[in-house]
Automatic annotation (TrEMBL):
<feature type="transmembrane region" description="Helical">
    <location>
        <begin position="12"/>
        <end position="28"/>
    </location>
</feature>
<dbReference type="InterPro" id="IPR037997">
    <property type="entry name" value="Dgk1-like"/>
</dbReference>
<feature type="transmembrane region" description="Helical">
    <location>
        <begin position="116"/>
        <end position="133"/>
    </location>
</feature>
<keyword id="KW-0548">Nucleotidyltransferase</keyword>
<protein>
    <submittedName>
        <fullName>Phosphatidate cytidylyltransferase</fullName>
    </submittedName>
</protein>
<feature type="transmembrane region" description="Helical">
    <location>
        <begin position="153"/>
        <end position="179"/>
    </location>
</feature>
<feature type="transmembrane region" description="Helical">
    <location>
        <begin position="93"/>
        <end position="110"/>
    </location>
</feature>
<keyword id="KW-1133">Transmembrane helix</keyword>
<keyword id="KW-0472">Membrane</keyword>
<keyword id="KW-0812">Transmembrane</keyword>
<dbReference type="GO" id="GO:0004143">
    <property type="term" value="F:ATP-dependent diacylglycerol kinase activity"/>
</dbReference>
<keyword id="KW-0808">Transferase</keyword>
<dbReference type="GO" id="GO:0016779">
    <property type="term" value="F:nucleotidyltransferase activity"/>
</dbReference>
<feature type="transmembrane region" description="Helical">
    <location>
        <begin position="34"/>
        <end position="51"/>
    </location>
</feature>
Amino acid sequence: MSMKSELKRKSLHLTGLVVPIFYLLFGREATLTLVGTAFFLFVMLEPFRIIEELRDNIKRRLRIYVDDEVFERVEVLERHIDEITRSHERYRVAAHIYFAAASFVVVYFFSMEIAVGAITVATVGDALAAIVGKSRGRHRFPNGKSLEGSMAYLLSGLLILWPLVGFLPAIIGALSGTVVEFYGIPPNAKREDQLDDNFSNQLTIALVLYLLSLL
């Protein structure tokens, strides 16, 4: 994926920050409603993204009722979505569904500080790791990840978590997210056999922070 496409993808990815911001402004119950509704809509629309025949049928019917200008905008949007979709996602569940599912679990089961921290780190850290790794990554590992990208994740995670949970839990929480982002779950398996990192990162950070809070 080109740098331009990666920036588009991560710009869309950063809209996930709506969840922690919404939580801080409106509280737990409203956030669960927002994320649950988003998850439901994502799941309902997902077949139209994956199954080309369904999408083509919708487009043929749409052309009957809308003018050419609107139809052209729909096709432009479709091209943008295809451009930022990774090859392994084209015929599998997309990242935003995993993100919404993990966010719902994290908001439901964990405290506000942990939920806000875990979702924010998973969102910002993932975006920075990809952008820094792609643009500045000079020290590469066999899995394609870079030292520079991993450091961007770790440092951003520390800065986000520190005011929420304290310095030591922030270090451990950020490090746990960095390790999961680097290796995946299960570690070193083929990407198609791993949990989506939009799911695993949030839950790992939240669980680690929760266990640390019990000590």
